Amino acid sequence: MTLQPERTVAELRELRELTATVDGAQRICWTDTWAQSRSWLHAKLTELPVEVETDEAGNLWATLRGESERAVVIGGHMDSVPDGGWLDGCLDTLAGLESLRRIAAEGTPPVTVRLVDWADEEGARFGRSLLGSSACSGTLDVDEVRGLTDRSGATLPDALREHGVDIDRMKDCGSQLDGAAAYLELHIEQGPVLERLGLPLGAVLGTFGVERHLIRFKGQTAHSGSTPMDDRRDAFAGAARLSLEVHEHTRRTGQGAVSTTGSVVNKPGIVTAVAGVCEMTLDQRHLNADVLAGELAYAKEAASRIATEERLEVEWEELWTIAPIPFDERLIGLADEAIVEIAGASHRLPSGPLHDAAEVARADVPTVMLFAQSLRGLSHTKEEDTKPEHIELSVMALDRLASKTIDLVAAL
Predict the structure, then answer these.
(1) Strand partners of residue 368
(2) Beta partners for 324?
């Protein structure tokens, strides 16, 4: 059987019909719709000569045994954000499925080939991204997530239990990476770079490091009508100034870093009062650890200076930090080769969003990703899209990369 990339496009559309509404994809992990998509995928896997299992963290594995126990792993995730796009995550899994079909049809491969559908990459229901892959890599702190609840008040342990997962046994799945010699992942870019360059595909250098903080400015609540401007200790003024200054500094440095003020909350939050407290979030990302540290240092200096000028107090609370994760140089080279052979030209770029691939790399498994062009750079929205011909090219490039990687691992 030859590779049929057009089948992947058809299956993506089939999945959209099965699990989306007019508002977009609804495959939020640990819900019935996500479970329905998993059952749909499982049915397709049972048509192949593979062993299918679900591990202790809810990750789904399909294993095609080879002449060697050393394994090339292709990964993706079927879960989505609410009202999400039709490609985010599931393209990875279904493109891997098509490559697995082609490899299986050719007989026993020289090394074992595995497809994994990671559980809860998005963290859409409970707010913890990369849940299944971090359990597998060993970086998950179970006690940190045990108390998470969704908007309805349901707890993460209870939701996991409904889907056959015991939170205290999640990290037992780490044995799944025993023998893994390489990890490959395809994803839509979720940004505008490849479209601006007029290229359908790119090779990913690694994932950005992240510094994510809550910054709390404290001033004095006062009446908005009777308090003169020069007597105010307006907490929101401090947050507004910091947001604008940090964003301008990040643009001006020209090093490719990004800074985002994602949330601003004023207290008491009424139209007739000067804000006595303002809490803002700051998310900073870059592939180079030194650049990222410099961006954070500048933000902290600016916050202190602005607080003094506005007669405020300022506090910082770390929400999350993760170091930059570079991918394997040898696999990046193979990814470039595969893309050039399929599409004629390649471009190397970092990933701003995090992916399961980052967790696999943290487990010391050589890792690489491919990006497919995203139209208008949109993702996590029903407007997310990629040209069908580019989807097909991405399936072909992933399959070509899989073949090259199998040959590499077999020769080691």
Answers:
(1) 184
(2) none
CA distances (Å), origin 188, targets 85, 116, 337, 346, 363? 11, 18, 19, 15, 23
Question: How far is it, in rounded angstroms, from Cα 295 to Cα 255?
Answer: 10
Q: Residues 56-95, buried b or exposed e (16+ Cβ, 10 A)?
A: bbbbbbbbbbbebebbbbbbbbbbbbbbbbbbbbbbbbbb
SS3 82: coil
Least confident of 43-52, 250-259, 286-295, 340-349: 250-259
Cα–Cα distance for residue pair 149/145, rounded to 1 Å: 9
Instruction: Select from 372, 403, 344 the least CA-distant residue to 201.
Output: 372
Residue type (1 letter), 407: D
Residues 6+ apart with CB under 8 A from 363: 136, 137, 138, 174, 177
3-state helix, strand, coil in the chain (%, to 5): 40, 25, 35
In 177-290, which ranges are E strands? 180-188, 201-207, 209-218, 222-223, 258-267, 273-274, 277-286
Residue linked to tokens 């069908």: 388
Report the sign of the C-alpha dihedral through residues 293, 355, 128, 267, in that order: positive
Residue 67 — pLDDT band, cuts 50, 70, 90?
Answer: very high
- Tell me: the pLDDT tens digits for 144-202? 999 999 999 999 999 999 999 999 999 999 999 999 999 999 999 999 999 999 999 99
Summarize the confidence of residues 281-307 as an average pLDDT: 97
**Residue 319 host element (H or E):** strand 313-322
Instruction: Tell me the Cα Rg of the chain.
Output: 23
Q: pLDDT exceeding 90 applies to what percent of the chain?
A: 98
Residues 6 or more apart whose CB falls under 8 angstroms from that of 315 comprise 215, 216, 218
Among residues 192, 146, 137, the alpha carbon closest in space to that of 165 is found at 146
Whole-prediction pTM value?
0.91
Domains of the chain: 5-207+324-411 (3.40.630.10), 209-322 (3.30.70.360)
328 alpha carbon, distance to own chain's centre: 18
